[in-house]
């Protein structure tokens, strides 16, 4: 029996298939990964996710495994070294956004405890399932985007936040034909 995936999952890229099959749409509660994915989704602006995904390991090395306590200490010398790093997207605004986001993240954690509590509180801890086809924003992504911007985060527009919600499993947007759509997983479990 052949595997059915969302059409965006490039079958020629094993990294992309691994991401689709084991990460995208899977609820994430790991603080480091939540912070990482927020910044990687921001890095995607104007590019394909596959481009960012292919550079993810380089990002992890370049940005100290997305440790906000280390990132807030980055200075202009560090930014210049990141601008020379061919393993990441060398966009000064996006690089600086990671530093700004680290500061905003730490403030958010002081206010609400954690990014996990903040995000999952919007959906009462339960992933939303999209049954309406391809969506790029929602009232919830609009709301979270607006609030994160007020808190000082950068590269957190509604489209980026919706993609982020998909990536961390707050929204399950696997296509109806995909084996990873919740309805298909439940029917396979019954067999």
TrEMBL record:
Zn(2+) binds at residues 6, 20, 174, 178. Keywords: Metal-binding, Zinc. GO terms for biological process: base-excision repair. One of its GO terms (molecular function) is DNA-3-methyladenine glycosylase activity. Coiled coil: none annotated. It comes from the Bacteria. The keyword Metal-binding applies. Pfam families: Adenine_glyco. PANTHER family: DNA-3-METHYLADENINE GLYCOSYLASE 1, DNA-3-METHYLADENINE GLYCOSYLASE I. This is DNA-3-methyladenine glycosylase I. It comes from Undibacterium nitidum.
